[in-house]
Amino acid sequence: MTWKLTKKIAFISLFTIKLASANEFLVTDQDFPPDNVKMENLGKFLFYDKILSGNEDISCATCHHPFAASGDGISLPIGTGGIGLGVMRNPNNIKKRVARNSPHLFNLGASEFTTLFHDGRVTKLVSPAGDDLPLGLDNPLAVQAMFPVTSDAEMAGEKGENTIADATAEGNLISVWQQLAARLQQIDEYVYLFIDAFADVNAAEDITYVHAANAIASFEAAAFRCTNSPFDQYLRGNYDVASEQQIRGAILFYGKAQCSTCHSGAFQTDQKFHAIGIPQIGPGKGDNLPGYNDGHDDFGRERVTKDAADRFKFRTPSLRQVTMTGPWGHDGAYNDLEQMILHHLNPVKALNNYDIRQALLPSRTDLHKIDIIAHQDQKRRQAIIDAIEINPIKLTDQEIYDLIAFLHALTDVNCIDLRRTAVNRVPSGLPIRD
Ligand code: HEC
Ligand code: HEC
Fold first, then answer.
1. Tens of pLDDT, residues 366-413
2. Which residues contact 55 (CB under 8 A, 6 or more apart)?
3. In angstroms, what is the span from residue 343 Cα to ligand 2's centroid?
4. Residue-wise pLDDT tens digits, 82-95
5. 37-225: what CATH class?
6. For atom 13 of ligand 2, which residue has the closest CA?
7. Entry pTM
8. Atom number, ligand 2, closest to the C-alpha of residue 389
9. Structural domain spans, the chain
10. Ligand 1 pocket check: which of 76, 102, 225 to mutate, most ligand atoms within 8 Å of Cβ?
11. Are 272 and 264 in contact (CB under 8 A)?
């Protein structure tokens, strides 16, 4: 009785007094798009089908796999040309690198996720395609699904390898989407599934890549909704689900440790962009500080806003399922959750002492040389340090373990085993395995 009461008091002080209103944390069905089983089933096939890649050798699932918590489990993805899955993926034949970590897809169907990618370059109405973006996309997830297929390193391939890659190299996105639609129109099973799922598709020639993107988005929103964590249950009044340590961790998270200044709201993100000094590893996004021209930097949000004040800012990630989604950071620099938290508590020290050996990067000497260039350079490190927004915070080891315990309470156990989101065949007949 007293035990329960203590918890209840902690609950009340934590969520009702310290914060304006507990309602801001409650997730309901209204936050997600309504179920549409036909679109979801079609989207599930498309998500796993290598038919959407130029060389027919990679699918969305390769980098967002249920066996790697809807990411790929490595620091930087190994795109087209790679063989195998996740930590076992072989990079020997890749020609181009992907510069950022493949994020998990949990809860992205929730209406508050209006901005996608680490730098927020996709929103429902704005995207890198500008005026070329077709009409009819249902939500930001659908807008996003238009782009991986137009990326040379991710899915399209290199100029000369296939006609989709050629169109990508010319910046002709409309041609990429038309060619993919043409592929789908030739597969009878897909034609049937599209006609069944969409009122405006009555024959093969009505299928566009926009339909495919809407179906993929529908699948992602439903399959990766994970909103029954102990945190959610606690908010609904089931106080027994949380351990004492998790409650201590929550009080730290929403108090002394100041995590909730950025990791706020129902999904532990303010949906904004902040500079916290994560080490820059990998090939970079082509950005250059004054005096450099190798392109191994990544200016983050500045790439979208063109405002130098946004340099090295990245989107605050949602912390739902975060204990499963390593490596962490926009480039997967940290492969240990405790290290990621320690980084926040003293970013300058962590950045200066960062050891790249903890990152999961391709074991190719030629690539390794490139991956360490930016971080090894003291001037470049200093530029990242100058942008850092957080001041050091001192916590005891016990407090750090409590915080980690709280992060565990953000895990919906129904989303640990994601086999239900996988398929064992696809309508194109292409192999699913590598
Ligand atoms: C080669 C690996 C790779 C493939 C293949 C791939 N992605 Fe991604 N995905 C990434 C990376 C890397 C990012 C982050 C890029 C960035 O922020 O600049 C990303 C970002 C996303 C996001 C945004 C997540 C967020 O939190 O903002 C979604 C959604 C997504 N991918 C879905 C898809 C879909 C759908 C497909 C197939 C059409 C796909 N991806 C194919 C690597 C991949
Ligand atoms: C100033 C805003 C801010 C504060 C305060 C903050 N974070 Fe973060 N956090 C971020 C941003 C931004 C990222 C992503 C950085 C990147 O990818 O470069 C991040 C990333 C993370 C990640 C990795 C998530 C992932 O998917 O890669 C974890 C875990 C995390 N934060 C936990 C915490 C904890 C615990 C605290 C409190 C001790 C905290 N954060 C305080 C902004 C903040």
1. 999 999 999 999 999 999 999 999 999 999 999 999 999 999 999 999
2. 80, 81, 157, 161, 162, 165
3. 9
4. 999 999 999 999 99
5. mainly alpha
6. 316
7. 0.96
8. 1
9. 37-225, 258-394
10. 102
11. no
